[in-house]
Amino acid sequence: MFFPARLRLLLAALAPVATHGTPPSALAAALEYLRDQKSYSWEVINSDPGPVAQQFETRRGTITSVQKNLAPNVKGQVDRNGDMRIQRFWADGLQLETLIAAADGTMVTQTPEGWLNEREILTAQADERLGGRGAGDRLVWLRRADRPDIRRPDQELVPLLKSSLEFEFSGESYVVHLRSRAGDPAKTNADESEPANQVSVTLNLRGGVIRDYEVKLEGTRRETRSRIAVPVSEQRIVILTYVPIGRIEAPAAAKEKIAAARAANGRKP
Prior knowledge:
By secondary structure, the chain is of the alpha+beta class.
């Protein structure tokens, strides 16, 4: 996989690199500042979608494995009430927007067929499978609309405050390396006997706050037929904007879907 030139800025720094067993005070203060934000925005930029081909020699001949990053780029917002808007953009042109109500977690997504709630998306997927129509375009976007990752940067990074991991730092850039079963910095796995991904998180501070951070994952996956372990990697950059948002306005159609979802679950509209 090919990465932007910004990848691993710390490795290119000429200044001496220091280490620290707990978050250094400046980083801890920046993490606490992020934790305390009631409203902010962020953007996630994923690595080049590829595809990238890798060839491996086996007893049965040469095997070609193609790695392709299918993760979308993301723009997210959380307003002062805790309501969220997540916009996702895929390399094939599909765009989906999801609204999440903080009061009860009700979620609706704008799709090629209009606004749909979680139950409608699940029902539509079941209809597609039962209809035997195969993995057509409709099933593709339905799967992408189903239960999106709605974690915020603070939910991903703040657990580092309580970690005892070794931090490398140079200037205002901090790097931590960890093992994770799911590629999630918040879910470490110190058991060397279990399969895990190697995750590197680089946090860049400016003016005492985290302005952006990079997450790089390296691991292996086994090909279904050959069972050969193929190295895989992913990388994303997250950019933070600390400008409060008073309120995320939902379109009338989205409000109707939210009310219908709440009524179906026995909640107040």
